[in-house]
Amino acid sequence: MIIPRTRNGPLARAGSFSLSILLSLATGAWAGPATIKSSPPLLKRYVVLSDDAATAAVKNGAEVVCNTKGLKAVMCPASVAAALNLTEDIPLHAMDSTANTRVLATRAQEMGLTGRGRKIVILDTGYNYLHRELSSSYLGGRDFVNHDDDPFDDNGHGSHVAGIITGDGIDPAAKGIAPETGIIAGKVLDAFGNGFTSDLVAAIYWAVDGPDGIYGDGDDFQPDAINISIGTSGTDLYPAGFCDSAFPPLTYAIKYAVDHGIMVVVAAGNNGSAGVAFPGCVSYATTVGAITGSNTLASFSGMGPEVGLVAPGVGLYSSYLGQTYKTRDGTSQATPVVSGIIALLKEAFPNASVDSLRNALLTTATDLGATGTDNRYGYGEVNACLALGALTTNLVNVALNLSRSNNQVIISWPATLSGFVLQARTSPDPTASGWRTVTNPVVVFQNQNTTTISSPAPNQFYRLNWQ
């Protein structure tokens, strides 16, 4: 769906002006002889990539409506844009708790991981910070549509997305993947779910640099991920490859976030075989498709080599407007499942890099469809528990300490992350089968797990394995 231009900026005022004329005529009041007035020129939104072009546009009557790193957006007539060779701003729109169990987030929660101390930026229609499921997680935000600091949701899409990440579970069916994660909301879509790419670019830099636009000082949000459950349709779809050159300012913005340690998780879009929506087709994004409850690809899920993962995206129940809840389908709903899992992983491993997180998510995904990666499922369905295990294997150096006392072996190791089990085998080959789990009681003392094995079998080797 292409964004109706009459709902944006000056056009909304022009529309209400026309309506007032009709109403005055309908009253039958006489105001003198009728005169024919020419209609004001139709205004559209365009991007300019240099200060000189912006200055020239303003001199020709254009209004600057967005100003961020690398670009400005202006409203002006098509004739001005044509004379200055301006590019039209790419329109965006919204992409429309069983998910916890299906992606094994429940097991991570049982280990005590809830996203505590982590932050996610959601760029969407806003955030219903008055909802009972969402109020505890709100950390502030910005409205890029109305240009103020109140990103209150007047559509519902952003609040539904947020609840999938951070719903408190007051209604148990609406509990989020990481319910203690803090949310910073950037409203980039209006009440109709429509917006522009230039505002999204500005919002990404804001998410990284903080309100003052300067990275590395005290007002930086330092989020773990940016969730973008929005995208394009129509001709702005990419079924065959990445789109980094389609709109370079957005590609640069996403890369900027990734380079600063923030994963950018983007919906694949709801256009099926027509291709992956923009910006999900940007190579630096982690792009998410949607599957049904039977682990088959949802018919609407965008397809293409850009898809990295899939997650549940059909029939997800979450917070909405007012104090209501709603069940919705879409890659918009699948995307925050992955963002919520990132919050869980970062709680366990706060220093994990983007590369480590991405590698853990992709390599542990449950393969669906054709063997290996494919254009429908990417690497497969995200698996929170296995991704946590991959990070544990790669990032935790756990040493076993063995000592003998009479006819006993005493084994101890650091009481770090739960999920490790002690295993034994007669050969030290870690790749071989036959490792058996040691079921002796484990006692925790002074941050050490300790177990005692009486009369151990000869030639035993021990290891810790994360399960």
Word description of this protein:
Helix 6 (157-166) packs parallel to helix 9 (331-348) and helix 7 (197-209) packs parallel to helix 8. It is elongated, with a radius of gyration of 26 Å. Mean pLDDT is 85; it is low at 1-38. The protein is built from eleven helices and 25 strands. It has a seven-stranded parallel sheet with strand order 7-8-6-10-13-15-16, with helices on both faces. Strands 2-3-1-4 form a four-stranded antiparallel sheet. Strands 19-20-24-23 form a four-stranded antiparallel sheet, with no helix packed on it. The chain is of the alpha/beta class. It has three domains: 5-23 and 39-89, no CATH class; 92-393, 3-Layer(aba) Sandwich (Rossmann fold); 401-466, no CATH class.
The figure for the number of domains is: 3
CA radius of gyration is 26 Å
What shape does the CA trace take? elongated
On the 0 to 100 scale, the average pLDDT is: 85
Note the quaternary state here.
Answer: single chain
Q: Give the number of helices.
A: 11
The CATH architecture name of the largest domain reads 3-Layer(aba) Sandwich
Question: Biggest sheet: strands, sense, closure?
Answer: 7 strands, parallel
**Alpha-beta classification:** alpha/beta
**Uncertain spans, ≥5 residues at pLDDT below 50?**
1-38
| CATH homolog superfamily of the largest domain | Peptidase S8/S53 domain
Under CATH at level 1, the class of the largest domain stands as: Alpha Beta
Strand content: 25-35%
Helix content: 25-40%
Q: For the largest beta sheet, what order do the strands appear in spatially? A: 7-8-6-10-13-15-16
Measured distance between first and last alpha carbons: 45 Å
